[in-house]
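WARN no homologs supplied; continuing
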Amino acid sequence: MPANTQPIFSIQGETQWSTLMTANNATHVSGSTSYMVFSAGTNGSFVQKIRFRHFAIVVSTSNTNATVARVWINNGDDVTVPSNSTLFDEITIATFTYSASAALTNYEIPLNFALPPNYRLYVTLGVAPVANTAIQATVIGGDY
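OK structure emitted
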C-alpha cells in the first residue's frame, strides 16, 4: 500500500529568476559560468516551467546570438562536482533582432515535477550573448 494516498498541493506560489546571463558554458554545470535559477524550499517545491527571454542591457543593441540553454538539476551539494548535477533538458534560443514594434520570443521548457528539499536548478548557455544583451530565465512553481 502506498505511503501517501492523498494528493499534495503547493502551500504558496514560488517564482525565482536568474541574474542576466552573459557567460557561456557548453558542456557542463560549474560555479563560474552557470546560473542558479531556482532553489527548492525547506519541504521541497513543485516546479512547473522555466521561461527564457532575451534582454537588451543597452536598448540600442540590435542583434543577439543564437544559443542553447541547458537546464541542470543539482542535489544541493557542490555544483563543481559533476556527479552532483544532471542535465535535465535543453532548448535552442534563436537569434533575434531587437525592434520597437516586434515582441521578443519566449522560450519555455515544461518541468512539472517535485524538486526535493534543498535541490536547485541551474542553467548554462552554449554561446555567450553578444555585448549589451543577455538571457534571463524565470522558473514558476510552488513550495510545499
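The two ends are 23 Å apart (CA to CA).
OK
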